[in-house]
Amino acid sequence: MNSIRNTSKVIAAVCFLVASGMSYAHPGHETSISFISGILHPFSGLDHLIVILLLGFWSAFVLKQIWVGPFAFLMGMMAGVFAGILGLSLHFFEFGIAASVAGIGALLLSKKQHSTKLILILLAMFGLFHGFAHTQLFSQANLGFSLLVQDMAGLVLATGALHFTGALLVGALKQRTNLFAKSAGIASLIYGLGLTGQLSLAVIGGTSL
User: Strand, coil or helix: what is 94?
Assistant: First the structure.
C-alpha cells in the first residue's frame, strides 16, 4: 500500500510540473560562457537534470558495464557541441530533448538488456541534442578558444557527476530500487510526452521555440 502511495506521489508531482507552463524543453541558458556556466548548464533545465541523472541510474540498474551508457551520452553531447560550433543546423533539437526525457523513462520501465549497440546509439543521440542545445548561448557570447575549453570542461564535469550520482542511487535505494525505477520511468515518460505536446502546439501556433 505504501509503495502504491509513494508511486502516486511521484507521478502526481511530475504531472504538476508538466502543466506548470514551461513553454519549451530547455529553459535557462546563460548569456556568457565560462567554466561555471558549463557546470551550471546541466542544472539549467529539468529536462537535462532528469535525463542525465536517470541515465546514470539506468546504466547501473541494467547494464553490466555501467560506464558505457554515460560514455555514449557524453560522446554524443560533445558531438552536438561541435556541430553547433560549426554552425550545422539541427532542426527541432527541442523535440529531440523532449524525446530523450520520454526515452529514458521508457528504458526504465522496460528494464531489459536490449541490444547494446542500439542502446549506445540511442543514448548518443540523446547527448547530441543536449550538447547542441548548449551551443545556443555561444551566439550571444564573446567566443574565445580558452573560454570554450573551460566551458566544455565544466559541462563534462557536471554531466559526469550527475551520471555518477544517478548510479549511486542504485546502491543507496537497495530494496526500493525497483519502485524508484518504475516511478521515475513513468514520471519521466509523462514529462517527456508533455514537453512534446507543448512543443507541437507551439509549432502549430507559430510560436518561436
Answer: helix
* DSSP code per residue over 122-165: HHHHHHHHHHHHHGGGGGGS---HHHHHHHHHHHHHHHHHHHHH
Instruction: For residue 136, give the nearest of 11, 44, 56, 46 by alpha carbon.
Output: 44
CA Rg value for the chain: 17
Taking a C-beta distance cutoff of 8 angstroms, is the pair 186, 105 a contact? yes
Could you tell me where the beta strands, DSSP code E, fall in 59-125? none
Per-residue pLDDT tens digits for 160-201: 999 999 999 998 998 899 999 999 999 999 999 999 998 888
* Cell digits of residue 167: 548510479
Q: Where are the domains of the chain?
A: 56-204
Residue type, 165: T
Helix-strand-coil split of the chain, %, nearest 5? 80, 0, 20
* DSSP secondary structure letter of residue 32: S
pLDDT tens sequence across 50-80: 999 999 999 999 888 889 999 999 999 999 9
| Cβ pair 120, 47 in contact under 8 A | no
Task: State the pTM of this model.
Answer: 0.81
What is the rounded CA–CA span in Å between residue 131 and residue 116? 22
